[in-house]
Design a protein that fits this description.
Blueprint: H1 15-21, E1 23-25, H2 34-41, E2 47-50, H3 58-74, E3 82-85, E4 87-89, E5 92-93, H4 107-113, H5 116-132, E6 137-138, H6 163-179, E7 183-189, E8 195-196, E9 206-207, H7 211-216, H8 220-227, E10 232-235, E11 239-242, E12 245-247, H9 254-264, E13 270-275, H10 279-284, H11 287-297, E14 301-304, H12 308-323, H13 329-346, H14 349-352, H15 357-379, E15 381-385, E16 402-407, H16 416-426, H17 431-437, H18 444-457, E17 463-468, H19 475-483, E18 486-491, H20 498-512, E19 526-530, E20 545-548, H21 554-564, E21 594-595, H22 598-614, E22 639-647, E23 654-663, E24 668-676, H23 685-698, E25 705-708, E26 719-720, H24 725-736, E27 744-753, H25 764-770, E28 774-778, H26 784-791, H27 799-807, E29 813-819, E30 826-833, H28 838-841, H29 845-848, E31 853-861, H30 868-885, E32 890-897, E33 910-922
Helix pairs in contact: 4-15, 5-6, 5-15, 6-8, 11-12, 15-21, 18-21, 26-27
Length: 932
Amino acid sequence: MAAGNGELDPVWDDVDRTLGQLFMMGFEGTVVTPQIRKLISEHHIGSILLKASNLKSAEQTTSLIYELQKIAHDAGHPVPLLIGIDQENGGVNSLFDDIYIRQYPSAMGLAATGSRDLAYEVAKATAEEVAACGINLILGPCLDVLTNARNQPLGVRTHGDDPQEVSAFGVAFMNGYKKAGLATMGKHFPSYGSLEFLGSALDVPTITESLEQLSLNALVPFRNAIREGLDAMMVGGCAMSSAGLNVMHACLSEQVVNDLLRNELHFEGVVISDCLEMEALSHNIGVGGGTVMAVNAGCDIVLLCRSYIHQQEAIEGFKLGLDNFNITKERVRTSLKRILAMKAKCTSWEKALNPPGIELLSKLQPSHTMLSTKAYNSSVTIVRDKNRVLPLTNILEPEDELLLLTPLVKPLAASAAARQLSDQATNGSPEPAVWERSSSVMSGERVFRELGRSLARQRNGRVLHTSYTANGVRPQHENLINRAGAVIIVTADANRNLYQNGFTKHVSMICNMQYTSGGEKREKPLIVIAVSSPYDFAMDQSIGTYMCTYDFTETALVALVKVLYGEFTAAGALPGTISQSQKLSQSRQHWLVENFNEERDSTGLDALIRSVVEGATPGMHSELSGASSNSLLLRNQDVLEQHFVVRNSSTQTLYGFCATYFFQATGTGVIGAIFVDPARRKLSIGHSLHNRAIRTLLQREGIKRFQLGSRLPSIYLGSPTGHGGERKRLRSWFAKLGWNTALSRTVCSMIARNLSTWTPPEGMARSLQSAAVDFDLVYGWDYAVGVLDHIKTNNRQGLAEVYKLALMDPSACGIIRAKRPEDGAIVGTVVLYNMQSQLAEFVPAMKAVGELTGGISSPVISPSVGEYSTLLQGLILLGMRQIKKQGCNACILDYMDGDGNPDGLSAMGFTSLHNFEEVSCDAATWTMVPPS
């Protein structure tokens, strides 16, 4: 509640009421306790953290949250409670309900799908479910980059070790949460991805990287999430130790919170501290003193998870800090304004006291179940299958036995197994006592029993299932291995549970030394499946068949079984840089890069293009199909072009080519193509060409930005994305060269075939007649003024040059215009061209179709037009009619926003031809990547 002028409402003059808003507190148990009731009613605590131990089901959670909000309302709180929860999916879900709450892959599992759109949908669905129960703050996204990946407990809770990829998926998660109405909280600033664990239990984990190192890597996702509108940030309780930086707890440090987060990264949202009840902090500083330090460091909300004694100590410490002038009232009011602003976006009393609960969750369940299945099916990853043992139906006869070996692990919190165990503890079953005595392990048969059953249900032959422990390979294991026709070993964080690594390597050796009854050596099929961290055997080539699921919830294991038996092909790919193991041993070479000389190099470039086309992935159409050296040479006075080659000076053979264009009108420097002879890839030729291109573009007078992908020539509209795992490889490659691939824009070229039998979709012609515009087709430079003025409403690179080419070639090009009848103002245009036009030379797909083809290019719709899609479809529909009238049987759309089906064009007969990610960045902030 703030006055219209930004001042606080007089209700906040009450000091206790104000201080309460600066705390987030938790409690133990599944019902409202006297302690939490008192904290809300008497101390006016403004935020509550709910943990897995508080929540039994969706229905109980809804009831509990309603009761908490009702207590606050009845106590006169001016605004509702902020109710926060960890719901990261994978193995970290505070709220589990096998009926109403769906299970989705972990953060790294979603990164393995390669789809930010899928990550967004999963985040939105997750947020919709918890919001239905009354949650209004989600403790996510996790923005940590695993720079010290193999030793991190965070594991699959992060999106991986590539800062650009973590950034892209983190922002997708954040936007999904926001779409469902939740406030978002990034964690764990300034990154838990590079922690070193040193000293005793009272020593906190330490970040040893310098601020400069963090800025280049770990801070990238935080910086981008802030730019995109992150609501809150959790600052961790870790230590920081490097040259010029010695911080005991980050969340208590003004250097971290105020200087780094506020001033350098320009974060204006709510800062939440790590829990001040951590043993190291309470032992070394004390909770009361820690509270004062956190507030003065810049934290807006101080978190205390469970201990009522510590919570009281924190409140008293805060009040004492005010009384002693250690904390100023202005400092408190600044935090209060931030908190109230965030609450205004995610809650109200109307919303807080009327949670939709089970009624809404029942409606969401069918679509969310389908989404869960899709996400898990898309995440399962086959890293290697050297001996082609997958699917199992290829190698197992019905009489063969399949052996499943699983480790002893505790079930994930977000699983039916964990809930079953919890229920048994409540009912006095003796078995959980064993689990509690050894919290890292429990019955492996319990956790993976359903996996064994699922494997058995899918085949006629027997499935043998037993567990393994730190005792290694026992005689029982050896006997079962000798009997089995194939062996599956499951590992879960083998890098931190080294007995799993040793056991797996021992079994692998046994399988490699099998012999037939005739004495011939016969390697027994072995499949190793990492069900948590993919790092277990990612780099170990001795494990010939290696798969990853990224978590071992029931839904993940169902998807795994389907892949093992070939019901669908695994589409996941290892996230980040770990999929590129060849980089570990590869040394970079520095090639001589020369200017392209048309007279000397044209023939060699044509030969190089043919090599690239012939070396394309089987079943995929190369973007260069139909191209020649002329396709890359614009010879346009408005565009400065300079191209580069790596060549063999003795044979004149070209090994690599890079095209650059500088569009003077927009100050845009473009890499329009970069390709290397397939037989000479991974030798740093592309890297050498790229560096030379960037250095040249940086020297252009008036350079404002760089762009990867060019509308003119329309060959590579960006980094190609239609090649499965190739997409991930290219994104990573360009990211390492300095491109912020997280801020890409999807574009595509499309094609409509069989125009001779094509008819417009039913009803489309009628809808166009009702549109308040007139269409016409014009040719020639006489119409240039109006058309070129119109396209200035869109400042995209290459747009003006495309239209000028069309206007100067009236025999082969035309412009379809859409005009307002009342004043004749142009509100939409599109370029029409045929195969004889100069424009067609720069669209190789025109020739590659192999039949008479027409082209439609560069639609521009005025920003003032409300019916964008209707007008776009109208322009394209009229273009198709004209192209069909000219006797063409195919139509190319050479540049469209979106991926696969922009604006419903599939209904008009178009299918995607090539998909790209167009990437732009500020030239003023470009950092050259040094050779290594």
